[in-house]
Amino acid sequence: MIAEAGHYALVLALALALIQSTVPIAGARWGDAALMNVARSAALAQLLFAAASFAALVWLHVTSDFSVANVFENSHSLKPLIYKITGVWGNHEGSMLLWVSILALFGGLVAAFGNNLPLSLRAYVLAVQAWIASAFYLFILITSNPFLRIANPPIEGRDLNPVLQDIGLAVHPPMLYLGYVGFSISFSFAIAALLEGRIDAAWARWVRPWTLVAWIFLTLGIAMGSYWAYYELGWGGWWFWDPVENASLMPWLAGTALLHSAVVMEKRNALKVWTILLSILTFSLSLLGTFLVRSGVLTSVHAFATDPTRGVFILLILCLFIGGGLSLYAWRASTLKQGGLFAPISREGALVLNNLFLTTACATVFIGTLYPLALEVLTGDKISVGAPFFNLTFAPLFVPLMIAVPFGPLLAWKRGDLVGAAQRLMAAGIAALIAMAMLLAWTHGGSTFAPLAIGLAVWVIAGALSDLAERTGLFRVDFGIAMRRARGLPRATWGTAFAHAGVGVALIGIVCETTWNSEYIATMKPDDVAKVAGYELKLDGLTQRQGPNFREMIAQFTVNLDGQKLSVMTPSKRSFTTRGSSTTEAALLTRGASQLYISLGDTTAEGAIAVRIYHKPMVLLIWWGPVLMAFGGMLSLSDRRLRVGAPKPAKASRALQPAE
Amino acid sequence: MTRKQRRLTMIGGSLAVLAVAAALVLNAMRDSIVFFSTPTMAAEKHIPPGKRFRLGGLVQPGSLVRGDNLAISFAVADGSATLPVSYKGILPDLFREGQGVVAEGALDASGVFKADTVLAKHDENYMPKDVADALKKQGHWKDDYGAKPGAAAAVPMQQGSAMPTQGASR
Known about the structure:
The complex is a heterodimer. By secondary structure, chain A is an alpha+beta fold. Chain A has helices at residues 2-30, 33-62, 69-74, 81-86, 92-113, 119-143, 167-196, 201-232, 243-268, 272-294, 303-306, 308-332, 347-379, 387-404, 407-410, 418-424, 426-442, 449-472, 479-488, 491-516, 621-638, 650-656, and strands at 383-385, 518-524, 529-532, 535-546, 551-561, 564-569, 572-576, 581-585, 587-591, 594-603, 609-616. Chain B has helices at 3-31, 39-45, 129-137; strands at residues 33-37, 52-59, 65-66, 71-77, 82-88, 100-107, 113-121, 166-169. The termini of chain B are far apart. By secondary structure, chain B is of the alpha+beta class. Among the domains of chain B are: 1-33; 39-120, CATH 2.40.50.140. The interface between A and B is large, with 84 and 59 residues.
């Protein structure tokens, strides 16, 4: 019953999406307010039904209804409740359902908070949202229905892939999807602007908070995924330049660029056409990410051939929206009025530079990710493009960007003063040089690259702080006055500083981890001692334990530092009987921002066990950086000026009325 | 500056960055791309010692020897040729004899493949895609390679969206 109800709710959501994608457009064309208002109710109702459908699937998983194929294939009655719920999106069908549910959620939010949008713009935006939604509802219903029944229900399910039975799965995919799908809003706004043939600063004012929301979630989602891979895969790597990861990095890079170009558009009414293009590209890359992960083209070009409907269907959606969006852009962009003038050395100029580097870096990731696929399809040659490629292309492009970051906020709009900005950044520059010199002296004879990179990171962080100090007059005026000024600063300014500093923090983590991590790999017998980075780890013994749906072998290590007992670490190896597979559960010991990391290998006949012990200095900064960036984003979002649904100023309201 | 000059500055700057990026990409393409070979292909192509490539095939049953200090040697076969592989470290969870494997490294002077990375895909068929494709092409594919207890029907595993697809051990 529940499965059928969920299926039916999905069909109804499709029907509503089809209404929402046509009626409001007709209304906008004819200037009929009643028809345009259909968009609002349809979007809200569609959200209701999509949510109901998703809730039905969650219910089926929680109650372990194995007569539903999706539950049978991915669940097990003994699985802990949390993984029964998260298992809903740990498979293809369920994760697509999550995707459309989030799409419906964003549509619903625009409908709910969009009361002060011009009526025709809202109608167009929601209609475009509904086009995307319809395509994906059709995709789910035709090729990946999660509610299919099995004729002879089995008693027990096949269990979820053990690697996915982790709290990481609870958080990571929903975050990532909130990011991916959130960019659909800026896409819809861009298409709406092209259809209407008009765009102004108010448009950017609307697009920015939505882009910011999506960007915050995507930032956290990527960081979360990276940390998950770090502790779950058992060899301490946190970024693999894997196509699936690149698929999430590309929309992030384009989205970051969009965030910055939208500022120019909002403040100076310039870069309109470019901002529109970026909106389209960002969501296109999100769709591409969905395609790469969901079509199976990455697991194998041949998985594509064994289940062609899915791959071809998503490819069609991809071509339709990317091709359609770009054609519409090519056709209509020239009708949009050109924006204001600015000198190359200015805040606008700095933001253009930011966009230039971010999009170029994004393009190199794009080439590295898709070139092997293209080559295999065209010539049949198999190659792998791994970390070395990206280190040689992506990293050099990020260096000038990082050097430029502190200058941006210190340059004035329209015509900036580079020398003045440089003078105000003197302190940051000195801090960076001191950091470099100290590190070079300390690691004498070691790599020169790491101190330089850390100096760059210090430059970015100190630059962000000098911007704040400059604005509050810290050290120049009375401390109390500076504090009062600090409170008076727009939240967006604080947000910028935090986000920029976050980039520097992450860079420090990345450089420290890759340069100074130490590794110890050996077979150990009980009472053996391993020495890693000053720590002494003694293997106390091995014990067996029975978990809810797995058996576990736990190794206990006592960690000593300078003869003092610090802590006990218990890495384990789990074997899951249902799928006949095993996972390695690493043990982590956090010391400040650094971590000790132990994972287990195979046991030998003599009762010894292979272990891998890492000391990873400053590794946590890699994830604190993105968290700081996301926090900065949230601060910006809470800025009055940008608040979603904030009442518009009375003057702007007239300018926002539809042209007709 | 006139509007035209400003625009030219902007376009000039963009082109410069793009040119640099293109140069970086082309340079990286030349040096850091690794080709995939099976033992047969490796023998036919006469890959010189020291040139990095990815070797894929099945772990020859009975060939796995564990030495001291995590030194490991095994042979990779593809039905018509075999290649000895030596490796030091911990093998991934999914490594087993008779199953597919991908190793990255280079041949040494004596013709032994020195692997520094051994990959096993998180695929429930224990069969890396490159290996499966190569075996199919050479006609050595047997359907039972993919079979394993409890998972008779081959449901392609689609994992969480940003699941790293490789477990590797160095």
